[in-house]
Design brief:
- The chain is mostly helical.
- The chain has 6 helices and no strands.
- Helix 1 packs antiparallel against helix 3, helix 1 runs antiparallel to helix 5 and helix 4 crosses helix 5.
- The longest helix is centred in the middle third of the chain and has 34 residues.
- It is globular.
- The two termini are 14 Å apart.
- GO terms for molecular function: ABC-type transporter activity.
- Keywords: Membrane, Transmembrane, Transmembrane helix.
- This is ABC-type transporter.
Length: 164
């Protein structure tokens, strides 16, 4: 579960940052900005495309889980997994916003790799500082707020602490 969060989060961050910096490097972004559309609208539309990709990835994974559980006759509490993949979509949307922000601010060809690296670094900071003296450092990691195991076993999100 954690590896899929890491890999899919890195991919969403990479593709979101590449949506901006790739067009800048290909010299098509300046043509887009010269159109009558507002710059904020262009960024929001790119963000919404990234969120749609994250949502479709979560929905297809949930559908595959439900289908495979039915085929193999395994009892699965789909309500808990629906909560899990909904929280996962929120996590992926926040990773997409990180990628869009990094791509728009730096306009560098290194932005996609930097965004993916930041997601991977946040994962390791969260993992390595959990239950240590440096646990406060892990608060900067987006994965700290997506507790997949707690959702599957407990079936709930704690809205008061923003931890799912």
């Amino acid at each position: 579960m954690a590896s899929s969060t890491l890999v899919l989060g890195g991919y969403i961050a990479y593709s979101s940052a590449n949506a901006i910096s790739g067009e800048v490097q290909g010299r098509t972004f300046w043509i887009l900005l010269s159109s009558p559309y507002r710059r904020g609208l262009v960024l929001i539309s790119k963000y919404l495309v990234a969120v749609a990709a994250a949502s479709s990835a979560s929905a297809s994974t949930l559908a595959a889980l439900a289908l495979s559980a039915r085929v193999y006759g395994v009892e699965v509490d789909l309500a808990r997994y629906l909560i899990l993949y909904t929280a996962g979509t929120v996590y992926l949307a926040s990773v997409a916003s990180l990628g869009i922000l990094l791509g728009a601010v730096t306009l560098s060809p290194r932005a996609p790799w930097t965004a993916a690296g930041m997601v991977i670094a946040m994962y390791f900071v969260d993992t390595l500082t959990l239950d240590t003296r440096l646990e406060r450092l892990g608060a900067i990691a987006l994965t700290r707020y997506h507790d997949a195991l707690g959702i599957v076993l407990g079936g709930e999100c704690q809205a008061t602490t923003w931890r799912c």
